């Protein structure tokens, strides 16, 4: 079982740091000097439904360049987390050049499913730490209007016939949600109660203007039913449903009745278009260039588990990351766990004993949406904004990952 494997993993880890080391300030620290995102729009019917991945990425990179006031030629690498677009690397390169970054800035895209944005942050951070580059931008973006993570055709049976877990890798994510619900006795009532609270928190945060310092307005165009176009400026997340209650959610029919009765369109993450970006460099570089230091990147890790219960991935990745840095959950101030499904969110909260007040205080993907490649970066942007508002220090982010993985990241707010 996953818990037994976790114990084996942790037993072989040697704590490499402590709270005092994590929060100390050193010249070689990898720091974040800008963290912003687009509004999150409803896929296929929202504000980005007619916006290409390359335009969304271009618009956000342009904001990074203008808001950072950094000489564009100093940026050496840009990495984009994206899941569903096979041409993402081409589109990122075109977007970066259009946004005013010179051709000396290299570009790449990567895909680790829902953790792609965090993986991009980790890769850029590690490149800076190793001396490969000095300044980089990590991004995540997804245009789910035109694509998601569904497979176009079955895997080769010569592969999947060798192992049940191999075959499980091609199963839809809704199936894994029902497996978590059934295997770990997560009830529909618990899931709807959790989802309603996610909507309530997001609604309140939006009313209070808490998202305003993390979202940058994006100008784009929408095609009208009569085939004419209108220009719009997107400023707010579109998935929040004011007045949502657990009772109301309880009336929604099951989304995957072929697998189980608990997962619905109301207690699962929304299909969403959006992007997020993080600017990274060493502390010494930020000081030399007069860049504001928002936060310190401490580290990240991944862990694997059975594909059929991929949703519980954070329960492996979080303890592993905390053990690596010799700290506990009691040291963490804000926790962002991606709400792929309420089944996994409830399981992860209860199994890890997460303080619900600290977990997704502005709501999560059930209310805000889950643009696959963007979420890992979006959580950092949102979490650091909440840390700044409340004066809190340590941010922990985590998500389950398709095909059976979990990832987690640790950051120190410095503002």
Explain how this protein is built:
It is a single chain. By secondary structure, the chain is α+β, with helices and mostly antiparallel strands. It has a domain at 2-147 and 270-408: Peroxisomal Thiolase, Chain A, domain 1 (3-Layer(aba) Sandwich), CATH 3.40.47.10. It contains 15 helices and twelve strands. Strands 1, 2, 3, 4, 5, 8, 9, 10, 11 and 12 form a ten-stranded mixed beta sheet that branches. Strands 6-7 form a two-stranded antiparallel ribbon. The longest helix is centred in the middle third of the chain and has 20 residues, at 188-207. Keywords: Acyltransferase, Potassium, Transferase.
- Beta-strand portion reads 15-25%
Fourth CATH level, the homologous superfamily of the domain at 2-147 and 270-408: Thiolase/Chalcone synthase
- The CATH topology name of the domain at 2-147 and 270-408 reads Peroxisomal Thiolase, Chain A, domain 1
Distance between the termini: 41 Å
CATH class of the domain at 2-147 and 270-408: Alpha Beta
Order of helices and strands: HHEEHEHEHEHHHHEEHEHEHEHHHEE
**Helix fraction?**
25-40%
Radius of gyration: 20 Å
Number of strands: 12
Detail the poorly predicted runs: none
Oligomer kind: single chain
